[in-house]
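Case 264 in the screening queue. Each case pairs one protein sequence with one candidate compound; here the compound is nicotinamide-adenine-dinucleotide. For every case the pipeline is the same: read the inputs, emit a complex structure as tokens, and attach any notable structural observations.

Predict complex for case 264.
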Amino acid sequence: GHGLMKGKRGLIMGLANDKSIAWGIAKALAAEGAELALTYQGDAFRKRVVPLADELGVTQMADCDVTDPASIDAVFNQLEEAWGGLDFYVHAIGFSDKSELRGRYVDTSPENFRMSMDISVYSFTACCQRAEKLMKNGGSCLTLTYLGAERVMPHYNVMGVAKAALEASVRYLAEDLGKDGVRVNAISAGPIKTLAASGIGDFRYILKWNEYNSPLRRTVTIDEVGQSALYLLSDMGRAVTGEVHHVDSGYHAVGMKAVDAPDM
Ligand code: NAD
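Case 264 output:
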């Protein structure tokens, strides 16, 4: 590393296992000297997250379910006590009942619509609200989104609608927090095989399609998303806010199947 994150402290939410995008981001930040806090969602994830946290010398850990405001408050209170401030915040959380990540969007239930919006959209705003208060010297907040926010993708359904709202909230948050030197951005990642992605119908087909049709003719890795996150979270990205940055081998730029793509 080059010490790009030396002296910076930050919180990462959404680490489930070593396939998580949050893990790619955590490794990239730790390699540049960042001090990290991690949250995990309940005891089931704790066992897998502890050894990963140890690997990076993580100093602050907490159980947090973002549907519970008290549990969000507890995390930020813990960090205020331990660190007195915060330099960056990463939100790598999304959820929808997987029975609605197939079939038609129009059939979405009100219960799952509200839950998906609460966990995948509102939680980012709720955490930025609390992070802002700790970012006394400015800071950088980052969330993860997908092209399904901008265009219709098979099976993405309610998550596409949620990601559209998440991207809009990035712009509103960037305006609100910009005066205090706090930046807010999103990375729109190409498809990666993770626990969350495995809930999406025909995910292997989506991976192959991206491999054959993206300008770089390959999918992306969690480490590559981590490198881009490093740019947005470090001072290298200090003039960038309200941005949705695509890290997807260029797939977002393409309008049609590649002429050399095999039949699928
Ligand atoms: P992942 O399963 O590793 O991470 C999802 C995380 O969300 C898990 O750690 C889970 O514990 C957490 N989570 C879900 N509900 C929660 C709750 N109520 N409270 C707290 N945490 C909760 O999968 P991932 O693919 O690394 O997902 C991270 C982010 O990246 C998500 O926002 C996802 O939509 C986004 N994304 C993923 C892809 C992809 O193809 N994998 C592409 C673009 C964007």
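Case 264 observations:
- The CA atoms of residues 57 and 87 lie 18 Å apart.
- The domain at 9-189+221-249 is CATH 3.40.50.720 (Rossmann fold).
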